[in-house]
Backbone:
């Protein structure tokens, strides 16, 4: 029964994000609104991690299966993609490098802040 409640919370957040995407005239996908809303609710404590953790872990566990249809669609569209194949590869490699660098730098900043707080607290 707890899975049903947790999925209901996730679906409610998803529905609200769809409404936000409709009513806010920005070119932002509803999924971004949903993730931002979920993050905000978790960080403010309005929503506790225990209220969605099991359902989220289940969704993360089956995530590879959710991409099978997308992968099959890419395979069937190869003829259309082939003429711009190297452009696609360059964009994917470039964006991956940017994401890795950004994530690494952000992690370093957060670790340094944590160490600085711990050092200030020990004085």
Residues:
């Amino acid at each position: 029964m707890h899975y049903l409640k947790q999925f209901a919370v996730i679906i409610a957040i998803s529905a609200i994000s769809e409404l936000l995407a409709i009513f806010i005239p920005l070119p932002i996908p509803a999924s971004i609104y949903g993730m931002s809303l979920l993050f905000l609710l978790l960080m403010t404590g309005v929503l506790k991690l225990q209220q969605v953790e099991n359902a989220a872990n289940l969704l993360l566990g089956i995530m590879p299966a959710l991409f099978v249809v997308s992968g099959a669609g890419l395979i069937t569209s190869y003829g259309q993609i082939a003429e711009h194949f190297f452009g696609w590869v360059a964009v994917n490699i470039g964006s991956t490098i940017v994401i890795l660098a950004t994530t690494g730098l952000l992690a370093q900043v957060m670790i340094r802040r944590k160490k600085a707080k711990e050092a200030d607290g020990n004085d």
Q: What stands out?
A: The helical segments are 2-23, 30-44, 53-61, 63-66, 68-76, 78-82, 85-122. The chain has seven helices and no strands. The chain has two domains: 1-67, 88-123. The CA atoms of residues 3 and 17 lie 21 Å apart.
